[in-house]
Amino acid sequence: MKKVKTLRAGNKGLTVALNLFPMEKYLEEFNVESAMKGQVINVGTDEKKIFNNSVQLISILGKWNADKFRELKATKS
């Protein structure tokens, strides 16, 4: 069952869904990096990526945001 994602009117930015993996399996070795494992989904393209730390997540989001910016710029020209 896919939920409808609503955005504010006129939103042209990047929209993602973030799913952090459950903490139970990381409790014995808990640290900040183990808390940042999960999957991110680009809502606009349905592209899915797994990340294992915050650096990977920010890199994925940065690439997708740059791609979105180029797409918007191309449609305005």
Topology (elements, then pairings):
Layout lengths: L15 E5 L17 E5 L4 E5 L2 H23 L1
Antiparallel strand pairs: 1-2, 2-3
Structure overview:
- It is a single chain.
- This protein has 77 residues and is α+β, with helices and mostly antiparallel strands.
- The protein has one domain.
- It contains one helix and three strands; from the N terminus they run E-E-E-H.
- A three-stranded antiparallel sheet has the order 1-2-3, covered by helices on one side.
Strand content: 15-25%
- Spans of 5+ residues with little confidence (pLDDT < 50)? none
> Strand arrangement, largest sheet?
1-2-3
Number of DSSP helical runs: 1
Mean pLDDT: 82
Q: State the shape.
A: elongated
- What is the gyration radius calculated from CA atoms? 15 Å
- Oligomer kind: single chain
Helix content, binned percent: 25-40%
Whole-number count of domains: 1
Order of helices and strands: EEEH
Largest sheet: 3 strands, antiparallel
**What's the β-strand tally?**
3
N- to C-terminal separation? 38 Å
- Which structural class should the secondary elements be placed in? alpha+beta
Feature tags:
77 residues, alpha+beta, 3 strands
Concise summary:
By secondary structure, the protein is an alpha+beta fold. It has one helix and three strands, in the order βββα.
